[in-house]
Amino acid sequence: MDTPLQHEILAIEAVDAFHRVYKTENDPYRQISFLGQGGCGFVDLIEHWERPGSTYARKLFPLQFSNQRRKDEIERIKSEAQIIWKLNHCHVVNIIATYEWQR
């Protein structure tokens, strides 16, 4: 069941074009612990620095491709996230945000 805060975050992210780019040092999320890894990336437990105690799982995709291939992969990830974001089912994760780091 979604909390009011989750709905608020989802609404904000939808209005702000869903995807953001941060410099690494400005990442709004703080890692709490490493949860695991799979074939596509890593998952860690995080919290937003403005909402201590509200925890989320973050999936990290290491992208070490050429510029065009990297852009294509980011677009694929964003597209998949937007599809999942539209779903509302107890067995499907809620997408809170997508973002990337720029160095």
From TrEMBL:
SUPFAM superfamilies: Protein kinase-like (PK-like). One of its GO terms (molecular function) is ATP binding. Signal peptide: none annotated. It comes from the Eukaryota. InterPro entries: Kinase-like_dom_sf, Prot_kinase_dom. Residues 29-103 form the Protein kinase domain. This is Protein kinase domain-containing protein.
